[in-house]
């Protein structure tokens, strides 16, 4: 194994983002094909989805998600900082045996 675990960990988010992009592109292509094959059903589905979304309290939902994000941000920053300190300590230790 020639790559260090730090390099593998650094590549993980990039691979994850690429995988998500590929999946979204595949779903969009499948949706486009479905709409071309069945335009009336697609229009009806879009109308129903729009009606349901119009009736949902989206403001409250997004407000709750935003509050949850703010609450989770502090521990995430703390964990990120601890990981960076650990990484710096490991690099320093490897330079000074």
Notes on the protein architecture:
This protein is an all-alpha fold and 97 residues long. The chain has two domains: 1-56; 57-97. Helix content is 91%, strand content 0%. It has helices at 5-37, 39-55, 58-95. Helix 1 packs across helix 2 (39-55). It is elongated and about 70 Å long. 0% of the residues are buried.
Overview in brief:
The chain has three helices and no strands.
Low-pLDDT stretches are none
Number of helices: 3
Order of helical and strand elements: HHH
The percentage of residues in β strands lies in under 5%
In whole angstroms, the N-to-C terminal distance is: 21 Å
- Average pLDDT, all residues: 87
Q: What are its keywords?
A:
0% strand; 3 helices; 97 residues; mainly alpha; 91% helix
Give the helix/strand layout:
Elements (H helix, E strand, L loop, with lengths): L4 H33 L1 H17 L2 H38 L2
Helix pairs in contact: 1-2
């Amino acid at each position: 194994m020639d790559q260090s675990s730090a390099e593998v960990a650094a590549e993980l988010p990039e691979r994850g983002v690429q995988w998500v992009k590929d999946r979204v592109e595949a779903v969009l292509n499948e949706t486009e094909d479905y709409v071309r094959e069945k335009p009336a059903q697609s229009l009806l589905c879009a109308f129903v989805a729009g009606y349901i979304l119009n009736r949902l309290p989206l403001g409250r939902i997004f407000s709750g998600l935003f509050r949850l994000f703010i609450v989770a941000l502090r521990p995430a920053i703390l964990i990120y900082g601890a990981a960076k300190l650990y990484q710096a300590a490991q690099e320093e230790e490897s330079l000074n045996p």
